[in-house]
Specification:
Length: about 290
C-alpha cells in the first residue's frame, strides 16, 4: 500500500520519528512557555541549559560513575540550581524593563555558558550511551523502533503532563500564577514572592535540562547542541501562543510530525516548514493559535 507514491511502511516510520522529535520540542517549549507565561521573560538561555543537562549527565557518568537513571534526576536539579542563581543575581533586576533587556541578558549568558563548555570539551561532541535496559528494539510491525526512542516519547509526555497538572490543577500552581499577576496582593498574605519566582525559573530550566539528558544518547553531547533546536523551539512557542503551556506542547507534537513528513515528501523544505507555518499563523492570528490577544 502506498500514500502519495510512498510505501506505507516508510510513512508510518516517519510519523513515529516525527512524534519523537515533537516530544523533544514539547519539553523544551514547555519550559520556555512556563517562564514567559509566569515571569514575562524571553529566556534565550534555554538552549544552553538544555546543553548543560546533557553535559552534566555525561560528567556524572564518566567522572563519578553515576548511571543514567540517577543523572536523569541529578542533572535537572543541578541545572535548576544554576538557573536560580542566574535569576537571583541578574534577571530579577530586569523584570520591570522592556523584554529586549531580558533577551539580551539571556543571550549573553548563553554565549558565556557555551564558550566555557567549548573551551573545556571542544566542539567535536561526546558520546553518551543509553542504559542497558533500553538498548533493545520494539517490533511495531511496520518498523523496528529502538527502545530508547520509545522511552523518549513516554518520558517526555509524562513530564509535560505532570508540569501542566502542577501549574493548572494544584494550589501551588494557582498561588504561583497569582504571584506573577498581582505580587503585592500575594505578598500581603505572607508569601515570599521573590522566592517563588526564583523557583519557577529554576523549574523551567530544569525541564530543559531533563530534555538534554534524554537527548544525550541520541545526539552527540556538544556545547553547541542547543543551537540547532532553540530557534525552532522559539518558533513553535510563537505558533502555539507565548505563555500557553498546552498550546506549546500540542503545537510541538504536530509540527514535529509535519517536519518529519516534509523530509519524506519534500526534503528541500524540511528546514523551513516550521518557520513558514509561523509566518502564516502570525498573519492570521498574531497572538498564536492558543494565545490570548491583549
Amino acid at each position: 500500500m502506498e500514500i502519495f507514491g510512498m510505501p506505507l511502511q516508510a510513512v508510518s516510520g516517519q510519523l513515529v520519528l516525527g512524534l519523537m522529535n515533537g516530544c523533544f520540542y514539547a519539553v523544551l517549549s514547555l519550559g520556555l512557555s512556563l517562564i514567559f507565561g509566569l515571569l514575562n521573560v524571553i529566556n534565550f538561555t534555554h538552549g544552553a541549559f538544555f546543553m548543560l543537562g546533557a553535559l552534566f549527565a555525561w560528567m556524572g557518568t564518566n567522572y563519578f560513575g553515576l548511571d543514567y537513571w540517577l543523572m536523569l534526576v541529578i542533572a535537572p536539579l543541578a541545572v535548576g540550581a544554576v538557573g536560580v542563581l542566574v535569576e537571583r543575581s541578574m534577571l530579577r533586576r530586569l523584570y520591570k524593563l522592556d523584554h529586549l533587556y531580558g533577551l539580551l541578558l539571556t543571550l549573553g549568558v548563553t554565549l558565556i555558558l557555551e564558550g566555557l563548555s567549548r573551551s573545556v570539551y571542544g566542539v567535536s561532541g561526546l558520546s553518551y550511551a543509553a542504559p542497558d535496559s533500553l538498548t533493545g528494539v520494539l517490533d511495531l510491525g511496520f518498523m523496528m523502533l529502538p527502545a530508547y526512542r520509545a522511552w523518549v516519547v513516554v518520558g517526555s509526555l509524562a513530564v509535560c503532563g505532570a508540569a501542566w497538572w502542577a501549574i493548572e490543577r494544584t494550589q501551588l500552581g494557582a498561588l504561583l500564577r497569582a504571584a506573577t499577576e498581582n505580587p503585592r496582593l500575594v505578598a500581603a498574605f505572607g508569601v515570599d514572592v521573590p522566592r517563588m519566582v526564583s523557583l519557577n525559573y529554576g523549574f523551567g530550566v530544569a525541564i530543559a535540562a531533563f530534555a538534554g539528558v534524554l537527548a544525550a544518547p541520541v545526539m552527540q553531547v556538544s556545547p553547541l547542541m542547543g543551537q540547532s533546536l532553540i530557534i525552532t523551539v522559539f518558533a513553535i512557542v510563537v505558533i502555539g501562543g507565548m505563555g500557553s503551556i498546552a498550546g506549546s506542547v500540542l503545537t510541538s507534537l504536530a509540527l514535529g510530525v509535519l517536519e518529519s513528513l516534509t523530509k519524506l515528501f519534500y526534503p528541500e523544505a524540511s528546514a523551513t516548514v516550521v518557520f513558514a507555518v509561523m509566518a502564516l499563523v502570525l498573519l492570521v492570528r498574531p497572538a498564536g493559535l492558543f494565545g490570548q490577544s491583549k
